[in-house]
Design goal:
2 helices; globular; alpha+beta; 2 domains
Length: about 80
């Protein structure tokens, strides 16, 4: 399962997605909230389907994708966003 082209596909309500984009699409929040960020969707944004725990546990074919997402979460929690 590859990235979703936001121009060709709809992101379905009730289905989890990881939406990513380039660093220039991240806007720093107000001075009152230095840790608040706004993420905009630009022409280089993309979405990845993020299977639920039930989907991961119920489909052997999703095991690799679920493991990759778990590793991604772990890296973000340990190191933060590197961009």
């Amino acid at each position: 399962m590859g990235p979703l082209d936001l121009q060709e596909r709809e992101v379905t309500w009730g289905v989890r997605h990881l939406i990513m984009g380039p660093p220039e699409d991240i806007w720093q929040g107000s001075q009152d909230s230095a840790t608040a960020y706004t993420y905009t969707l630009g022409k280089r944004s993309w979405a990845e389907w993020w299977p639920s725990e039930a989907e991961c546990g119920g489909d052997v074919g999703l095991a690799k994708r679920c493991a990759q997402l778990a590793a991604f979460i772990s890296a973000l929690m340990e190191k933060g966003c590197l961009s």
